[in-house]
Amino acid sequence: MTEARTIFRSSAATSTLAIHYHVAMPQPQSHLFEVTLQVEGWEAPLLDLKMPVWTPGSYLVREYARHLQDFSADNGNPTQSLPWRKLAKNHWLVETGDASAITVRYRIFANELTVRTNHLDASHGYFNGAALFFFIPGFEQHPCQVTIAPPNPDWRVTTPLPAVSGKFNTFEARDFDTLVDSPFEIGDHKLYEFEVLGKPHQLAIWGEGNADPKRIIEDTTKIIKVEAELFGGLPYDHYLFLLYLTASGFGGLEHKDSCSLIYSRFGFRAKDKYNRFLQLVAHEFFHLWNVKRIRPLALETFDYEKENYTTSLWFSEGTTSYYDLLIPQRAGIYDAKTLLENLSKEITRFLTTPGRKVQPLDESSFDAWIKLYRRDANSDNNQISYYLKGEMVSLLLDLLIRERHGNKRSLDDVIRIMWEQFGKGEIGFTPQQLREVIESVAELDLSNFFSKTIE
Ligand SMILES: [Zn+2]
Q1: 105 alpha carbon to ligand 1 midpoint, in Å?
Q2: CA of residue 256 to ligand 1 center, whole Å
Q3: CB contact at 8 A, 146 and 173
Q4: CB 3.0 to 4.6 Å from 131: which of 64, 67, 149, 318, for a disulfide?
Q5: Which residues surround ligand 1, an ion (CB under 5 A)?
């Protein structure tokens, strides 16, 4: 895009611009979402549309545009099509001429049930905004609406986005980031409401298994309370847990006021498996602070078109992993012995990974895009996960701070200062700033520690 066009389009920006996505799924068994994007109040002769190549929280270029088909554009009347062409793998350009109302239609194949992709079949629809919606460059800060048309009246729509009053199944996102950060579940899933610290929470469960919603809600409530106490309150108005039960799935994706979880459908009765599930809950919930609001500078503003490199995922993911072990113990879900057993397993896993002697921790974070998410036969030999080693470094820092201050300070203080200084205002932190916070809490020069463990 040329500078001249940018200037022209900025001046064309109008407060009357309306962006509205419609998502239909008339034949869910075909795995095809039918998306219609309506842009009204457009005042430029060209309209750029771009699809993200990745989604925050999952550091891999996934090329979501590869699932797009049947693209067309018109002026609202399907018989009056507008010319368009592709400029890049994820970039479409529509020649809008003097049309101010533009309708773009396309279909997205959705047959991958993970927390960071889309899935549509006869039982439900699940999607992530990054994998379904175009953004209009220059208008990412513009609010938009989403209307869902389920294939039958029994299907309900669950999303953290607020509903637009008076408009059926219509929701509003204040900007494109919020749209991307708000997954949708559409179907006859079970939906449970509960309140914690005066705030409404929901648990949606898709799939069958031996999950006991009452018990999950009780234990999740304990986790929420412990984490709220650590950070000094809950920074959202409401929160949604989306839980997907599959044969052997495992995974989570964090959002600011929701998370998506995939877990083994029969993993809720055996104690160790259930504890693992609650660690997953504690982990994704912890992220609503650490990484969703306390963000490395490289993730302060997302670039949806390419890799966003940061060396700080050891803190965003590793420290979160350390806390997902601690939180259930603090919540009384398991005892100190179980915590130590879990920690010992992690230490063993770390010590038996030869790649820990090859790849520095900050490089593991930086190269997440090409290594951690793209494991191969040599990965154990030349890589160390920033989750695992970040967890080990967090353990060492916690012990070091506690030892130095007679157990009166801990890594909790680091977390709280990071929240106060960076998270609350969503100001990106640099590796140096993170180190300064840690050193200020420890009251130690940690040059040697950092060069030995991280760099
Ligand atoms: Zn995580």
Answers
A1: 34
A2: 13
A3: yes
A4: 64
A5: 317
Q: How many CB atoms lie within 10 A of CB 65?
A: 21
* Mean pLDDT per 10-residue interval, the chain, length 455 residues: 42 73 98 98 97 97 98 95 98 97 98 97 98 98 98 97 98 98 98 98 98 98 98 98 96 98 98 98 98 98 98 98 98 98 98 98 97 96 98 98 98 98 98 98 97 95
The residue written with tokens 């005892």 in the block is: 335
Determine the distance separating the centroid of ligand 1 and the alpha carbon of 314, expressed in angstroms. 10
Residue 229 half-sphere exposure toward CB, CA atoms < 13 A = 9
Spell out the residues 6+ positions from residue 448 whose beta carbon is closer than 8 angstroms to its own.
none
Ligand 1 centroid–CA 252 distance in Å is 7
Query: Distance, CA 281 to ligand 1 centroid (Å)?
Result: 10
CA dist list (Å): 165 to 172, 231, 238: 10, 33, 17
pLDDT attached to residue 16: 87
Q: Are 85 and 49 in contact (CB under 8 A)?
A: no
- Which structure tokens are listed for 126? 């699940």
Ligand 1 centroid distance, CA of 208 (Å): 25
* Domains of the chain: residue spans and CATH: 3-186 (2.60.40.3650), 189-281 (3.30.2010.30), 289-455 (1.10.390.10)
pLDDT for res 14:
52
Q: CA-to-CA distance for 414 and 385, rounded, in angstroms? A: 22
Instruction: Note the pLDDT tens digit of each residue in 339-374.
Output: 999 999 999 999 999 999 999 999 999 999 999 999
Distances (CA, A) of 140 to 116, 143, 177, 368: 20, 8, 7, 26
Distance 108 CA to ligand 1 centre (A): 27
User: Ligand 1 centroid to 244 CA: how many Å?
Assistant: 17
User: CA-to-CA distance for 186 and 122, rounded, in angstroms?
Assistant: 11
Report in angstroms the alpha-carbon separations of 39 from 17, 92, 178, 213, 317: 7, 15, 18, 41, 38
Interface confidence (ipTM) of the complex: 1.00
Q: 416-441 burial by CB neighbour count: b if 16+ within 10 A, else e?
A: bbbbeebbeeeebbebebbbebbbeb
Rg of the chain over Cα atoms, rounded to whole angstroms, equals: 23
Ligand 1 centroid, distance to 194 Cα (angstroms) = 24
Identify the pLDDT of residue 35. 98
Strand intervals (E) in 223-362: 239-246, 250-254, 258-264
